[in-house]
Amino acid sequence: MNKKIWLSSPHLTGEEQKYVKEAFDTNWVAPLGPNVNGFEDEICTYTSAKSCSVLSSGTAAIHLALILLGIEENDEVICSSFTFSATVNPIRYQKAIPIFIESEKDTWNMRPKILEKAIKDRIANHKKPKAILIVHLYGMPSKMDEIMAISKKYSIPVIEDAAEAIGATYKNKAMGTFGKLGVFSFNGNKIITTSSGGALISNDPEYCEKATFLATQARDDAPHYQHSQIGYNYRMSNILAGIGRGQLEVLNDRIEARRKNYNFYKKEFSKINKISFVEEPEGFYSNRWLTTILTDSFETREKIRLALEKENIESRPLWKPMHLQPIFNEFPAYIDGTSDDLFQRGLCLPSGSNLSLNDLKKIATVIKSLF
Ligand SMILES: *Cc1c(COP(=O)(O)O)cnc(C)c1O
Questions:
Q1: Ligand 1 midpoint to CA 134 (Å)
Q2: pLDDT tens per residue, range 331-366
Q3: What are the domain boundaries of the chain?
Q4: What is the CATH number of domain 16-248?
Q5: 157, 150, 135: which is closest to 71 by C-alpha?
Q6: Ligand 1: does its nearest atom lie under 6 Å from the Cβ of 194?
Q7: How is residue 222 annotated by DSSP?
Q8: Alpha carbon 4 to its chain's center
Protein backbone atom coordinates (compact mmCIF):
# COMPACT_ATOMS: atom_id res chain seq x y z
CA MET A 1 0.00 0.00 0.00
CA ASN A 2 1.21 3.51 -0.81
CA LYS A 3 1.97 5.83 2.08
CA LYS A 4 -1.26 7.55 3.06
CA ILE A 5 -1.67 11.15 1.99
CA TRP A 6 -3.83 12.91 4.57
CA LEU A 7 -6.31 15.71 4.11
CA SER A 8 -4.61 17.91 6.70
CA SER A 9 -2.14 16.55 9.20
CA PRO A 10 -0.23 18.25 12.06
CA HIS A 11 2.94 20.02 10.97
CA LEU A 12 5.34 20.62 13.84
CA THR A 13 8.68 22.36 13.61
CA GLY A 14 10.46 20.99 16.69
CA GLU A 15 10.64 24.52 18.15
CA GLU A 16 7.46 23.75 20.09
CA GLN A 17 9.55 21.46 22.28
CA LYS A 18 11.52 24.41 23.62
CA TYR A 19 8.38 25.76 25.27
CA VAL A 20 7.19 22.33 26.37
CA LYS A 21 10.60 21.58 27.90
CA GLU A 22 10.48 24.86 29.79
CA ALA A 23 7.12 23.83 31.20
CA PHE A 24 8.57 20.51 32.37
CA ASP A 25 11.74 22.09 33.75
CA THR A 26 9.78 24.62 35.80
CA ASN A 27 7.05 22.11 36.74
CA TRP A 28 4.29 24.23 35.20
CA VAL A 29 2.22 21.21 34.19
CA ALA A 30 -1.22 22.64 34.84
CA PRO A 31 -3.95 24.69 33.19
CA LEU A 32 -2.01 27.82 34.09
CA GLY A 33 1.56 29.04 33.75
CA PRO A 34 3.83 31.21 31.61
CA ASN A 35 3.03 29.48 28.29
CA VAL A 36 -0.69 30.04 28.83
CA ASN A 37 -0.16 33.76 29.41
CA GLY A 38 2.51 33.97 26.71
CA PHE A 39 0.32 32.24 24.11
CA GLU A 40 -2.57 34.58 24.91
CA ASP A 41 -0.37 37.67 24.55
CA GLU A 42 1.05 36.38 21.28
CA ILE A 43 -2.42 35.66 19.86
CA CYS A 44 -3.39 39.24 20.76
CA THR A 45 -0.30 40.59 19.02
CA TYR A 46 -0.89 38.47 15.94
CA THR A 47 -4.58 39.37 15.55
CA SER A 48 -4.56 42.85 17.14
CA ALA A 49 -7.34 41.65 19.46
CA LYS A 50 -7.29 43.33 22.88
CA SER A 51 -7.75 40.14 24.87
CA CYS A 52 -7.63 36.37 24.63
CA SER A 53 -8.48 33.32 26.73
CA VAL A 54 -6.95 30.01 25.63
CA LEU A 55 -9.19 27.00 26.17
CA SER A 56 -9.41 23.25 25.81
CA SER A 57 -11.08 23.41 22.38
CA GLY A 58 -12.77 25.59 19.81
CA THR A 59 -16.06 24.00 20.83
CA ALA A 60 -15.49 25.13 24.44
CA ALA A 61 -14.74 28.64 23.14
CA ILE A 62 -18.05 28.74 21.23
CA HIS A 63 -19.90 27.46 24.31
CA LEU A 64 -18.39 30.16 26.54
CA ALA A 65 -19.05 32.85 23.90
CA LEU A 66 -22.75 31.93 24.00
CA ILE A 67 -22.78 31.96 27.81
CA LEU A 68 -21.05 35.36 27.86
CA LEU A 69 -23.77 36.77 25.61
CA GLY A 70 -26.41 35.43 27.98
CA ILE A 71 -27.83 32.75 25.67
CA GLU A 72 -30.32 30.63 27.59
CA GLU A 73 -33.00 28.04 27.06
CA ASN A 74 -35.29 28.78 24.08
CA ASP A 75 -33.30 31.83 22.96
CA GLU A 76 -32.80 31.93 19.22
CA VAL A 77 -29.28 31.99 17.80
CA ILE A 78 -28.78 32.65 14.10
CA CYS A 79 -26.14 30.36 12.67
CA SER A 80 -24.52 29.39 9.37
CA SER A 81 -25.96 26.12 8.12
CA PHE A 82 -22.93 25.22 5.99
CA THR A 83 -20.43 24.30 8.73
CA PHE A 84 -19.15 21.58 11.04
CA SER A 85 -21.52 20.41 13.79
CA ALA A 86 -19.19 21.83 16.47
CA THR A 87 -20.49 25.30 15.56
CA VAL A 88 -24.04 24.33 16.47
CA ASN A 89 -23.70 21.83 19.31
CA PRO A 90 -22.92 24.51 21.95
CA ILE A 91 -26.20 26.29 21.04
CA ARG A 92 -27.92 23.08 22.07
CA TYR A 93 -25.77 22.72 25.22
CA GLN A 94 -27.57 25.94 26.26
CA LYS A 95 -30.92 24.48 25.09
CA ALA A 96 -31.20 27.44 22.74
CA ILE A 97 -32.66 27.22 19.23
CA PRO A 98 -30.41 27.40 16.16
CA ILE A 99 -31.87 29.29 13.19
CA PHE A 100 -29.98 28.17 10.12
CA ILE A 101 -28.99 30.54 7.32
CA GLU A 102 -28.00 29.68 3.78
CA SER A 103 -24.63 30.27 2.15
CA GLU A 104 -23.93 32.67 -0.66
CA LYS A 105 -22.16 31.56 -3.81
CA ASP A 106 -19.04 33.78 -3.72
CA THR A 107 -17.55 32.72 -0.39
CA TRP A 108 -19.87 29.86 0.67
CA ASN A 109 -20.42 31.72 3.97
CA MET A 110 -23.62 33.16 5.47
CA ARG A 111 -25.60 35.09 2.89
CA PRO A 112 -26.27 38.59 4.25
CA LYS A 113 -29.54 39.02 2.35
CA ILE A 114 -31.02 35.86 3.84
CA LEU A 115 -29.65 36.78 7.26
CA GLU A 116 -31.63 40.02 7.22
CA LYS A 117 -34.73 38.32 5.88
CA ALA A 118 -34.53 35.76 8.70
CA ILE A 119 -34.08 38.42 11.38
CA LYS A 120 -37.14 40.30 10.12
CA ASP A 121 -39.12 37.08 10.04
CA ARG A 122 -38.07 36.06 13.56
CA ILE A 123 -38.91 39.52 14.92
CA ALA A 124 -42.33 39.29 13.23
CA ASN A 125 -42.70 36.01 15.14
CA HIS A 126 -42.24 38.10 18.34
CA LYS A 127 -38.79 36.75 19.04
CA LYS A 128 -35.62 38.67 18.30
CA PRO A 129 -32.58 36.43 17.88
CA LYS A 130 -29.99 36.95 20.62
CA ALA A 131 -26.82 36.37 18.60
CA ILE A 132 -25.49 35.79 15.09
CA LEU A 133 -22.94 32.97 14.90
CA ILE A 134 -21.07 33.18 11.61
CA VAL A 135 -18.44 30.82 10.24
CA HIS A 136 -15.49 31.63 7.97
CA LEU A 137 -15.51 28.28 6.22
CA TYR A 138 -12.32 26.63 4.99
CA GLY A 139 -10.47 29.83 5.93
CA MET A 140 -12.48 32.15 3.64
CA PRO A 141 -13.71 35.37 5.29
CA SER A 142 -17.43 36.13 5.33
CA LYS A 143 -18.84 39.35 3.85
CA MET A 144 -18.15 41.36 6.99
CA ASP A 145 -19.25 44.85 5.91
CA GLU A 146 -22.71 43.54 5.11
CA ILE A 147 -22.97 41.28 8.15
CA MET A 148 -21.74 43.88 10.64
CA ALA A 149 -24.15 46.46 9.17
CA ILE A 150 -27.05 44.06 9.80
CA SER A 151 -25.75 43.29 13.30
CA LYS A 152 -25.70 47.01 14.06
CA LYS A 153 -29.05 47.77 12.45
CA TYR A 154 -30.84 45.16 14.59
CA SER A 155 -28.50 45.37 17.63
CA ILE A 156 -27.69 41.66 17.59
CA PRO A 157 -24.11 40.74 18.56
CA VAL A 158 -21.92 38.64 16.27
CA ILE A 159 -19.80 35.66 17.32
CA GLU A 160 -17.23 34.63 14.71
CA ASP A 161 -16.45 30.95 14.47
CA ALA A 162 -12.97 31.44 12.98
CA ALA A 163 -11.93 27.89 13.92
CA GLU A 164 -10.77 27.35 10.34
CA ALA A 165 -9.73 30.93 9.63
CA ILE A 166 -6.91 32.01 11.95
CA GLY A 167 -4.63 34.30 9.95
CA ALA A 168 -7.27 35.09 7.30
CA THR A 169 -8.16 38.77 6.88
CA TYR A 170 -10.93 40.93 5.47
CA LYS A 171 -9.75 44.36 4.31
CA ASN A 172 -6.53 43.72 6.25
CA LYS A 173 -8.31 43.06 9.55
CA ALA A 174 -7.98 39.66 11.25
CA MET A 175 -10.95 37.31 11.24
CA GLY A 176 -12.22 36.90 14.78
CA THR A 177 -11.87 40.61 15.57
CA PHE A 178 -15.03 41.93 13.88
CA GLY A 179 -17.66 40.48 16.19
CA LYS A 180 -18.04 40.82 19.96
CA LEU A 181 -16.23 37.51 20.28
CA GLY A 182 -14.06 35.39 17.99
CA VAL A 183 -13.19 31.69 18.22
CA PHE A 184 -10.12 29.76 17.07
CA SER A 185 -9.43 26.02 17.10
CA PHE A 186 -6.05 24.33 17.45
CA ASN A 187 -7.29 20.81 16.82
CA GLY A 188 -4.90 18.40 15.09
CA ASN A 189 -6.32 18.99 11.61
CA LYS A 190 -6.33 22.79 11.75
CA ILE A 191 -3.75 25.11 10.20
CA ILE A 192 -1.79 25.29 13.47
CA THR A 193 -2.35 22.89 16.32
CA THR A 194 -1.83 22.27 20.02
CA SER A 195 -3.04 18.67 19.43
CA SER A 196 -6.35 19.89 20.83
CA GLY A 197 -7.21 23.36 22.00
CA GLY A 198 -8.95 26.60 21.20
CA ALA A 199 -9.12 30.28 22.01
CA LEU A 200 -11.62 33.04 22.52
CA ILE A 201 -10.65 36.58 21.54
CA SER A 202 -12.38 39.91 22.09
CA ASN A 203 -11.74 43.61 22.01
CA ASP A 204 -13.62 43.78 25.30
CA PRO A 205 -11.22 42.39 27.95
CA GLU A 206 -14.09 41.77 30.37
CA TYR A 207 -15.36 38.96 28.15
CA CYS A 208 -12.05 37.11 28.15
CA GLU A 209 -11.54 37.59 31.88
CA LYS A 210 -14.98 36.16 32.46
CA ALA A 211 -14.27 33.31 30.02
CA THR A 212 -11.12 32.37 31.93
CA PHE A 213 -13.05 32.52 35.20
CA LEU A 214 -15.80 30.23 33.90
CA ALA A 215 -13.23 27.91 32.27
CA THR A 216 -11.53 27.31 35.62
CA GLN A 217 -14.61 26.17 37.57
CA ALA A 218 -15.94 29.69 38.38
CA ARG A 219 -14.12 30.06 41.69
CA ASP A 220 -15.07 33.17 43.61
CA ASP A 221 -12.42 35.24 45.33
CA ALA A 222 -12.09 33.44 48.68
CA PRO A 223 -9.48 31.36 50.55
CA HIS A 224 -11.79 28.33 50.40
CA TYR A 225 -13.59 27.04 47.31
CA GLN A 226 -16.61 29.26 46.90
CA HIS A 227 -18.93 29.21 43.88
CA SER A 228 -21.84 31.38 42.91
CA GLN A 229 -22.02 30.29 39.27
CA ILE A 230 -21.79 27.08 37.24
CA GLY A 231 -18.20 26.57 36.15
CA TYR A 232 -16.44 24.54 33.48
CA ASN A 233 -13.12 22.76 33.12
CA TYR A 234 -12.27 24.36 29.78
CA ARG A 235 -8.82 25.89 30.28
CA MET A 236 -5.84 25.06 28.06
CA SER A 237 -2.91 23.46 29.84
CA ASN A 238 0.52 25.07 30.04
CA ILE A 239 2.02 22.15 28.07
CA LEU A 240 -0.34 22.55 25.14
CA ALA A 241 0.01 26.33 25.21
CA GLY A 242 3.76 25.70 24.76
CA ILE A 243 3.05 23.77 21.56
CA GLY A 244 0.80 26.64 20.48
CA ARG A 245 3.54 29.24 21.00
CA GLY A 246 5.90 27.33 18.73
CA GLN A 247 3.15 26.87 16.14
CA LEU A 248 2.10 30.52 16.13
CA GLU A 249 5.67 31.50 15.22
CA VAL A 250 5.24 29.70 11.89
CA LEU A 251 1.57 30.47 11.18
CA ASN A 252 2.42 32.81 8.31
CA ASP A 253 4.62 30.13 6.71
CA ARG A 254 1.79 27.62 7.09
CA ILE A 255 -0.64 29.98 5.37
CA GLU A 256 1.81 30.55 2.56
CA ALA A 257 2.24 26.79 2.08
CA ARG A 258 -1.52 26.19 2.04
CA ARG A 259 -2.09 29.01 -0.41
CA LYS A 260 0.59 27.47 -2.59
CA ASN A 261 -1.30 24.16 -2.56
CA TYR A 262 -4.40 25.97 -3.75
CA ASN A 263 -2.49 27.67 -6.57
CA PHE A 264 -0.89 24.39 -7.57
CA TYR A 265 -4.23 22.59 -7.90
CA LYS A 266 -5.80 25.53 -9.66
CA LYS A 267 -3.09 25.60 -12.28
CA GLU A 268 -3.08 21.82 -12.73
CA PHE A 269 -6.84 21.66 -13.31
CA SER A 270 -7.19 24.86 -15.31
CA LYS A 271 -8.07 22.93 -18.47
CA ILE A 272 -10.67 20.70 -16.81
CA ASN A 273 -13.95 22.56 -17.19
CA LYS A 274 -15.75 20.18 -14.83
CA ILE A 275 -13.65 21.49 -11.88
CA SER A 276 -13.84 25.01 -10.48
CA PHE A 277 -12.42 26.85 -7.47
CA VAL A 278 -13.65 29.49 -4.99
CA GLU A 279 -11.85 32.76 -5.71
CA GLU A 280 -11.12 35.47 -3.17
CA PRO A 281 -13.27 38.54 -3.75
CA GLU A 282 -11.35 41.86 -3.63
CA GLY A 283 -10.16 42.59 -0.07
CA PHE A 284 -10.60 38.97 1.09
CA TYR A 285 -7.52 37.01 2.18
CA SER A 286 -8.17 33.30 2.86
CA ASN A 287 -5.70 31.14 4.77
CA ARG A 288 -6.76 28.33 2.39
CA TRP A 289 -6.98 25.90 5.28
CA LEU A 290 -8.41 23.38 2.84
CA THR A 291 -8.39 23.58 -0.93
CA THR A 292 -11.91 22.79 -2.07
CA ILE A 293 -13.07 22.06 -5.60
CA LEU A 294 -16.52 22.21 -7.08
CA THR A 295 -17.31 19.65 -9.77
CA ASP A 296 -20.15 19.60 -12.29
CA SER A 297 -22.07 16.78 -10.57
CA PHE A 298 -22.31 14.39 -7.64
CA GLU A 299 -21.12 11.61 -9.97
CA THR A 300 -17.93 13.48 -10.93
CA ARG A 301 -17.23 14.27 -7.31
CA GLU A 302 -17.58 10.63 -6.32
CA LYS A 303 -15.47 9.51 -9.25
CA ILE A 304 -12.63 11.75 -8.04
CA ARG A 305 -13.04 10.81 -4.39
CA LEU A 306 -13.02 7.07 -5.08
CA ALA A 307 -10.06 7.29 -7.47
CA LEU A 308 -8.07 9.09 -4.76
CA GLU A 309 -9.17 6.61 -2.10
CA LYS A 310 -7.89 3.77 -4.27
CA GLU A 311 -4.44 5.39 -4.19
CA ASN A 312 -4.64 5.82 -0.39
CA ILE A 313 -5.20 9.57 -0.74
CA GLU A 314 -7.69 11.11 1.65
CA SER A 315 -10.26 13.57 0.32
CA ARG A 316 -13.64 14.46 1.76
CA PRO A 317 -17.00 15.85 0.60
CA LEU A 318 -17.73 19.39 1.78
CA TRP A 319 -19.52 19.79 5.12
CA LYS A 320 -23.05 18.41 5.05
CA PRO A 321 -25.25 21.42 5.90
CA MET A 322 -26.69 21.48 9.42
CA HIS A 323 -30.30 21.83 8.24
CA LEU A 324 -29.89 18.38 6.63
CA GLN A 325 -28.47 16.71 9.75
CA PRO A 326 -30.84 14.31 11.53
CA ILE A 327 -30.06 15.93 14.89
CA PHE A 328 -30.79 19.49 13.69
CA ASN A 329 -33.34 19.19 10.87
CA GLU A 330 -36.30 20.11 13.08
CA PHE A 331 -35.01 23.68 13.56
CA PRO A 332 -35.98 26.69 11.44
CA ALA A 333 -33.86 27.10 8.33
CA TYR A 334 -33.76 29.88 5.74
CA ILE A 335 -32.33 28.16 2.71
CA ASP A 336 -32.46 28.26 -1.07
CA GLY A 337 -30.57 25.11 -2.04
CA THR A 338 -27.08 26.64 -2.37
CA SER A 339 -25.36 24.65 0.37
CA ASP A 340 -27.22 21.43 -0.55
CA ASP A 341 -25.77 21.82 -4.02
CA LEU A 342 -22.27 22.57 -2.73
CA PHE A 343 -22.46 19.46 -0.56
CA GLN A 344 -23.42 17.36 -3.58
CA ARG A 345 -20.70 18.62 -5.89
CA GLY A 346 -17.82 19.75 -3.72
CA LEU A 347 -14.70 18.00 -2.48
CA CYS A 348 -11.84 18.91 -0.10
CA LEU A 349 -8.42 17.93 -1.43
CA PRO A 350 -5.32 17.13 0.64
CA SER A 351 -4.15 20.51 1.86
CA GLY A 352 -1.52 20.04 4.57
CA SER A 353 1.37 22.48 4.76
CA ASN A 354 3.65 19.43 4.93
CA LEU A 355 2.63 17.92 1.58
CA SER A 356 5.61 17.37 -0.69
CA LEU A 357 5.67 18.45 -4.32
CA ASN A 358 5.67 14.74 -5.15
CA ASP A 359 2.49 14.21 -3.12
CA LEU A 360 0.82 17.11 -4.91
CA LYS A 361 1.91 15.89 -8.32
CA LYS A 362 0.63 12.42 -7.56
CA ILE A 363 -2.78 13.77 -6.51
CA ALA A 364 -2.98 15.91 -9.64
CA THR A 365 -2.05 12.97 -11.87
CA VAL A 366 -4.76 10.75 -10.38
CA ILE A 367 -7.40 13.44 -10.91
CA LYS A 368 -6.27 14.52 -14.37
CA SER A 369 -6.28 10.90 -15.58
CA LEU A 370 -10.08 10.85 -15.06
CA PHE A 371 -10.75 13.56 -17.64
C1 LIG B 1 -12.77 22.52 14.10
C2 LIG B 1 -13.98 23.37 14.14
C3 LIG B 1 -14.64 23.67 15.33
C4 LIG B 1 -14.33 23.02 16.64
O5 LIG B 1 -13.06 23.17 17.12
P6 LIG B 1 -12.48 22.07 18.15
O7 LIG B 1 -11.21 22.71 18.60
O8 LIG B 1 -12.26 20.82 17.37
O9 LIG B 1 -13.47 21.90 19.24
C10 LIG B 1 -15.71 24.55 15.30
N11 LIG B 1 -16.13 25.09 14.15
C12 LIG B 1 -15.54 24.80 12.97
C13 LIG B 1 -16.05 25.47 11.75
C14 LIG B 1 -14.46 23.92 12.93
O15 LIG B 1 -13.91 23.61 11.76
A1: 13
A2: 999 999 999 999 999 999 999 999 999 999 999 999
A3: 16-248, 251-368
A4: 3.40.640.10
A5: 157
A6: no
A7: S
A8: 25
